[in-house]
Write a structure and sequence with these properties.
This protein has 115 residues and is an alpha+beta fold. It is built from 3 helices and 5 strands. Strands 1, 2, 3, 4 and 5 form a 5-stranded mixed sheet that branches. The longest helix is centred in the first third of the chain and has 11 residues.
C-alpha cells in the first residue's frame, strides 16, 4: 500500500517532492487545499551538525478538484559545529521570482497566462 500512496503523491506533488519531504498535514476548505510537507532530516554534509529548526515556504501549485492548492514546505536548517553560517539543502521549490511551483509557473507561461 505504501508504494501506491507514494506513486500517487508523485503524480500530484511537484517533481522530486517525495524524495526530500514527508507530508505532515493536509486539509481543505471550500476554496483551497492545504498540504504541509516537512523536509527529511538529512543534512547536506557529513560534518557534525546541530539542527536550527525550520523555515516555512508556501507556494501555489496546480489546482486539485477545482480548488487552489497551497503547499507549505517546512525547510530544515542546520549549523555545522564550530561554524557561523547555516546550511540547507539546495532544493528548488518555487519558480524564480514567484511563489508558484516551477511546473505550474512553466505551464502558465506556456499557456500565455490564460489559466
Amino acid at each position: 500500500m505504501l508504494n501506491e500512496a507514494t506513486a500517487l503523491l508523485d503524480l500530484i506533488l511537484p517533481t522530486g517532492t517525495s524524495q526530500y519531504f514527508t507530508i505532515t498535514a493536509c486539509h481543505s476548505d471550500d476554496t483551497d487545499v492545504y498540504i504541509t510537507l516537512e523536509e527529511n532530516d538529512e543534512p547536506p554534509t557529513h560534518a557534525a551538525v546541530v539542527s536550527k529548526g525550520f523555515h516555512d515556504i508556501t507556494i501555489t501549485d496546480f489546482p486539485i478538484r477545482g480548488k487552489r492548492t497551497l503547499l507549505t514546505f517546512r525547510r530544515r536548517y542546520w549549523k555545522v559545529v564550530g561554524q557561523k553560517e547555516l546550511l540547507k539543502r539546495d532544493i528548488p521549490l518555487a519558480f524564480p521570482g514567484t511563489q508558484l511551483a516551477t511546473e505550474f509557473a512553466r505551464f502558465l507561461k506556456d499557456d500565455g497566462g490564460r489559466g
